[in-house]
Amino acid sequence: xxxxxxSSLHHEExxxxxxxxxxxxEENQVVAVLTGxxxxxxxxxxxxxxxxxDKPIYLIAGEQSNSLAACCEILSWINQHNGxxxxxxxx
Amino acid sequence: MDRLGLIGKPSDWLIxxxxxxDLIREKLHCELIEIPIREVQSLGEVxxxxxGALRIYERLKELVAKYNLYGLTLRCFDLLTVCKxxxxxxxxKLNAEGIPAACEGDVPALLTMVLAKRxxxxxxxxxxxxxxxxxxxxxxxxxxxxxLNMVDKYEYDSHFESGIGISIHAxxxxxxxxxxKVSGDLKRIFAEDVQLVRNQYQPNLCRTQVWxxxxxxxxxxxxxxxxxxxxxxxxxxxxxxxxxxE
Lengths: 91, 246
Prior knowledge:
The complex is a heterodimer. Chain A is α/β, with parallel strands linked by helices. Chain A has helices spanning 22-27, 39-47, 67-80, and strands at 2-5, 29-33, 57-61, 85-88. In chain A, helix 2 links the parallel strand 2 (29-33) and strand 3. By secondary structure, chain B is α+β, with helices and mostly antiparallel strands. The mean pLDDT of chain B is 96.
């Protein structure tokens, strides 16, 4: 499943940095972190059970709007909580 | 014991940038002093541009004296709505004066700056990873403030996320730097000697933007990063940083 996260801190036009393979998205937890400041939105999804730490979490990072920075903060949190994650910057 | 001011709590998005005050006291000989953000917000709305940004700087200088601080970290985004200006210029000036001063209430970033100051004499450039070129190992790092004693030249711009106030666009000297970060419990450190290969100035990014040539940074960031903010410190000091937290 593909989750899209974007913070109200940012007002730029936002795009996915690449079109992920539909099969990969269907079979995995994929989170497109479109902007900085969306880290707390990730935690909300974990707390609601929409994202599970029991399975790998793939974070898609773009090249603007502090997307990669937010991915690093989120991945660091995943690792601190014994989850398994990875940042992807291209298909 | 060096006193570090936490002016406001860490920003809400710093979800993994936690810290252990006891270990910080024991290993770094630093004491954390909590200071309410209202001590800066009480300025109210300040003037636009440089004049207002300097009023924030002056208030932080007062707090440094009042609490006898060696360094500080500021929950700076909370100034945007109340003061209608930014802490970017204030932090740039404080760092240049030898007072480690971090953005966003980030404590691990401040601890890394304290180490950087002790090792290199510079607080370092607190920056976000922004882009990765996996083909050539180059990475773009950016932020809206930078110690003014690290730059060749600088100019003012607006703050990236808010579009208001003062931020710093600067060009840095090319050459040898260390990219470093310690975790808030001082149990992890990443430090690598890198090369700054060029400066750039593009929209949709924090205003000071530098490209680094790296060896191990990219696989580390994509799998086991120590949170977001890292510090870029002049000179090659990676081995000294690692030794400092052993």
